[in-house]
UniProtKB/TrEMBL annotation:
Transmembrane segments: none annotated. This is Pentatricopeptide repeat-containing protein. The lineage of its organism: Eukaryota, Viridiplantae, Streptophyta, Embryophyta, Tracheophyta. Keywords: Repeat. It holds the Pfam family PPR. PPR repeats lie at residues 36-70. It comes from the Eukaryota. InterPro entries: PPR_At4g14850-like_plant (IPR046960), PPR_rpt (IPR002885), TPR-like_helical_dom_sf (IPR011990).
Amino acid sequence: MPVKNLATWNAVIKGLVRFGELKSARILFDEKPQRNKISFMTIIDGYAKVGDMAAARLLFDELLEKDLFSWSVLILGYVQNRKSNEAMKVFGKRYAMNVKSDEFIMVNLMSACSQLGCLELARWVDSYISNNSCDLGRPHVAAALIDMNAKCGNMDRVNLLFEKMPKRDLISFCSMIQGFSIHGHVVQAVVTV
């Protein structure tokens, strides 16, 4: 191409990342004359997908203007790589900076909490969601909240959330059954079916 702009550079980098050519994508990223958030997020997401969260975090730290999307990509990367403690630390850093979180960050945070299985942390996350007007009417938010509470052993909260759901789906039923089963409530697991 005789003339390359930021969009064309980003498109090539994204294509390389998508096909698993992360090394080539990084070379282009380092050589390109301009970078924007899309450039950074594409490479960070690529590193997260291959499990190199150290490289993803280094690039994230280089990003001067972090927004909801960039924080969300980093937290999701840690969750996908089962590094829940790191995801919680990143959220804690955001929280200390008084930055509001959206439902996507909260769903990722609930996934991290589910992986940890910590009841105290689940209660804090649940309280944070309730106090920060996160829309529990959205199916993916409600399902994540049920799953987190079930895996952390807060079955009373799970029952309450499940009963309040306007429309129950397969995911919510599976979370209920799994929660009861994990915590030795076999009869309730069978009755839920």
